[in-house]
Amino acid sequence: MKRKVLFVCLGNICRSPAAEAVFKGIVKQKGEASIYEIDSAGTSDYHAGDPADARMNLHAKKRGYVLTSISRPFNPNRDFDYFDIIVAMDDDNLFNLKQMSRNKSDVKKLYRMTDFSSTGKYSSVPDPYYGGSQGFELVIDILEEAGEGLYQHLNSTL
Length: 158
Fold this sequence. Notes:
Layout lengths: L2 E7 L5 H15 L6 E7 L11 H9 L13 H7 L2 E4 L2 H10 L3 H4 L2 E3 L20 H25 L1
């Protein structure tokens, strides 16, 4: 049975596609890509149908990640039932996901990406959309570090 992970940010063009690519890289490196299904979505439909932000793509490529996802809005009726764990990039998106939840079972699947960080340095994955290069690099730094923690968590719970 596959472990199904969904990453969620606001527009699904920067943080969550990067989280998807980074986590795919982590499980591939560990030889476990075949037992994971990894996707991303946004709490809004602002960018539905669009590829990842070109700047995020550029910074991800520098580290060997390829962002292949196409933006889509989170679908509560499908996604809560389908995915084992749903990981929000920040408190606002976590709040929005909780508002879309249908029951306690849905809420139990929700986490923030930084919940899996071992450093505790950041409480969220900041949105780099309106900033410069450093913001995109910081996002990938956080995703790589917290992604390892997420991998450990999933191996101990699923």
